[in-house]
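Below is a filled-in request sheet from our internal design queue. Each sheet records the structural input a requester submitted and the sequence that came back. We keep these sheets so that new team members can see what a complete request looks like end to end.

REQUESTER: design group, bay 2
PRIORITY: normal
MODE: inverse folding
CHAIN LENGTH: 292
BACKBONE (tokenized):
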């Protein structure tokens, strides 16, 4: 079944079902025979969905949910360096364009870094530990489920997620820093996953909003990928061949980041135009109407 809460079924049971399903998918991806790096995106996506559900119910559940989120965050972090190394190489290939041959030496260094990250995970028993951790969290899902089968189980979590994304947008455009744009991207993803889980309460309106959030997420994702590549190139610049060509690539990366940020701004302003209280009240009405 899809990542979706069925409105005619008890809310705690539905949240439990889809959280366990995502953790099972992540564990299955980690258990495939191919190198872990080929599946790390699927693993991290599943983890983001589970953490979005956790944040949806955390204000109502309290400490048990907070402890679970810390564990889930640690699991996701265990493969983040491998994912970043993949992103750097993929983004480099998209960014260099006709300069690829001239920057072949730079790409070779990025390939070596990805190989080293993959080997480090495998050498340290990371794949087996990851599978064990995911299986453990799947068994523990029940511990952070809400008790109430009503709006109060998700009210504060959904409202906080919306407010966090709205405020993160303002912070990003005030500072223009890559870190703040990444924080906005994370908040948008969390909000998007929470609404996807609630899509059935108002399918038409939710689909329209999810489509906009997907477009915004794509823009912010491309911007973040460039930020990761920029950081890798700057950090390794002294060791890379042909620094002048690297500097030219860095200038092009900066120009592209600015374009993406300009395109994201009107879309973000539209998506997060409502005050948090108005957003909450609208979704609450849809929720109660769908379950009445």
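RETURNED SEQUENCE:
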């Amino acid at each position: 079944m899809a990542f979706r809460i069925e409105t005619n079924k008890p809310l705690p049971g539905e949240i439990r079902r889809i959280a366990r399903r995502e953790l099972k998918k992540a564990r299955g991806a980690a258990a495939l025979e191919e190198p872990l790096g080929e599946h790390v995106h699927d693993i991290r996506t599943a983890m983001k969905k589970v953490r979005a559900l956790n944040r949806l119910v955390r204000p109502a559940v309290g400490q048990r949910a907070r402890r679970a989120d810390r564990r889930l965050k640690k699991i996701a972090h265990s493969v983040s360096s491998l994912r970043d190394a993949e992103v750097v190489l993929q983004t480099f290939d998209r960014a260099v364009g006709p300069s690829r041959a001239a920057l072949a030496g730079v790409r070779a260094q990025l390939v070596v870094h990805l190989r080293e990250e993959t080997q480090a995970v495998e050498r340290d028993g990371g794949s087996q530990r990851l599978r064990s951790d995911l299986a453990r969290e799947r068994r523990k899902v029940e511990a952070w489920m809400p008790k109430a089968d009503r709006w109060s189980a998700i009210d504060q979590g959904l409202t906080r997620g919306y407010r966090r994304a709205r405020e993160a947008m303002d912070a990003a455009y005030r500072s223009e820093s890559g870190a703040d744009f990444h924080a906005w991207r994370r908040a948008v993803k969390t909000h998007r996953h929470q609404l996807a889980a609630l899509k059935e309460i108002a399918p038409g309106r939710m689909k329209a909003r999810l489509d906009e959030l997907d477009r915004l997420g794509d823009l912010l994702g491309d911007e973040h990928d460039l930020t990761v590549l920029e950081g890798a190139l700057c950090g390794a610049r002294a060791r890379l061949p042909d620094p002048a060509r690297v500097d030219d690539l860095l200038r092009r990366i900066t120009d592209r980041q600015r374009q993406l940020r300009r395109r994201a701004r009107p879309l973000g302003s539209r998506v997060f135009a409502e005050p948090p209280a108005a957003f909450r009240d609208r979704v609450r009405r849809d929720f109660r109407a769908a379950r009445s």
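SHEET NOTES:
- Residues 16 and 141 are 7 Å apart (CA to CA).
- Residues 203-236 form the longest helix (34 residues).
FILED BY: M.R.
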